[in-house]
Amino acid sequence: MSELSVPHLLGIKYINEADIQLIFETADHFKEVINRPIKKVPSLRDITIANLFFENSTRTRLSFELAEKRLSADVVNFSAAQSSVKKGETLIDTVNNILSMKVDMVVMRHPNPGAGVFLSKNVKASIVNAGDGAHEHPTQALLDSYSIREKLGDVAGKNVVIVGDILHSRVALSNIYALQLQGANVKVCGPKTLIPKYITSLGVEVETNLQKAIEWCDVANMLRIQNERLDISYFPSTREYVQQYGLTKAMLDRLDKKIVVMHPGPINRGVEITSDVADSEQAIILDQVENGVAIRMAVIYLLASKIK
Amino acid sequence: MSQKVLLSSKEINVILHRLACQLIENHLDFNDTVLVGIQQGGVFLADRLAKMLSEMYDIHNLKVGYLDITFYRDDFRRSGKPLEANSTKIDFLVDDKNVVFIDDVLYTGRSIRAALTAIQSFGRPKNVELLTLIDRRFSRHLPIQPTYRGRQVDVINQEKVIVHWEENNGEDAIYLVNR
């Protein structure tokens, strides 16, 4: 019987291909569970999980909470907006206070890159990174690959282009690691100002022309323009960005193949993709959300089995 | 390690016919009855019985499902390694149905306890019966007994019952192995 090679899920960088396959196989079973009339199993009834969100999130937080509840874990939620963090408490103190209440696992989103790694070295609990700044968002990358595997049968050998704001995106970095581990070819596409200088050292190619990128790819993962993170102007105007990097139905229809369109959400309709693309049968955006719960159940289940 | 044959292929065949007839006796045309094989060993037995019922006893439209109990077990995190799941395939509701659990070996009864919880996810059965090929007497941890039993055996705890199916291991045979 196999188990994960790590006690925490801090990023895709820290896991291997066998871990990914184990998570996918376990997620297959949970996907069946969440499609039952009663979508709950009692596996983790003795586990307590704290969801610590130091940054806003709707989908990831709901997805984690549902995953935890469907495994019958006890759940406590914490968001920085209504907490003592505002009163000056440090991260370790906050978390240790929560752990004193006998919490076994921490799911954390934090604006600072490396917050999960830091925490894993300083507190006694299993840590799941739900996004740390512009660093990693491992469960999103896992559910993205899982959705590709579900739609196309396999990830290996597929051409995947990640389009948009690569510079500020934790989804992009985790996706690059995950896709490469599974043997996919990855390109990134976007305005040069939003592509990190050293991205090619990861073995990905840079394409600045969206038309060329979608002609090459089997899957296009369209990232959101994160206006809240754009501290300076990276492109002249949203209108110009849309003209160059917005995916339209007409562009898809001109291709002689049907590519898969993904988006991690939330969508800015009419910016990264038009409404008719988001609602087309080529888009698997809502499948990604459904798979997110199954993937998070698998990750939590496998990590919980390592807690002694 | 020593090994002896508990049941041969011929004996298994005779027992399967008897069990099939006992099921018919209680369920007649199986209109309101579903067979549920417990992963993993029970699945081969359930398939075999279903095939026998349709080919030799003219029972058609029999509903057969597979139930995996991994996520319902009471020894999660006690065994050291994660429990690996098998697939569940129940594409019908069990509301107001007679459910017959089918398992190869009944030992402590804990799997059946887990199966009783698991089946609730698919509705509220009218009643639940248990069919088992081998019933290990004197080793129960819970008050659970089979409704239909193939063979009752007295096995001491160091011994293990191993079931081979032609579909899986190339032969039908049941062995008693001394570890």
From TrEMBL, chain A:
Catalytic reactions on record: carbamoyl phosphate + L-aspartate = N-carbamoyl-L-aspartate + phosphate + H(+)
Signal peptide as annotated in the record: none
Binding site for carbamoyl phosphate: R59, T60, R109, H137, Q140, G265, P266
Cited InterPro entries: Asp/Orn_carbamoyltranf_P-bd (IPR006132), Asp/Orn_carbamoylTrfase (IPR006130), Asp/Orn_carbamoylTrfase_sf (IPR036901), Asp_carbamoyltransf (IPR002082), Asp_carbamoyltransf_Asp/Orn-bd (IPR006131)
Residue ranges of every copy of the Aspartate/ornithine carbamoyltransferase Asp/Orn-binding domain listed in the record: 157-302
EC number, as in UniProt: 2.1.3.2
Keywords, alphabetical: Pyrimidine biosynthesis, Transferase
Family matches, as SUPFAM superfamilies: Aspartate/ornithine carbamoyltransferase (SSF53671)
Residues at which L-aspartate binds: K87, R170, R224
Superkingdom of origin: Bacteria
Family statement: Belongs to the aspartate/ornithine carbamoyltransferase superfamily. ATCase family.
Function: Catalyzes the condensation of carbamoyl phosphate and aspartate to form carbamoyl aspartate and inorganic phosphate, the committed step in the de novo pyrimidine nucleotide biosynthesis pathway.
Subunit structure: Heterododecamer (2C3:3R2) of six catalytic PyrB chains organized as two trimers (C3), and six regulatory PyrI chains organized as three dimers (R2).
HAMAP family reported for this sequence: Asp_carb_tr (MF_00001)
Designated name of the protein: Aspartate carbamoyltransferase
Organismal lineage: Bacteria, Pseudomonadati, Bacteroidota, Flavobacteriia, Flavobacteriales
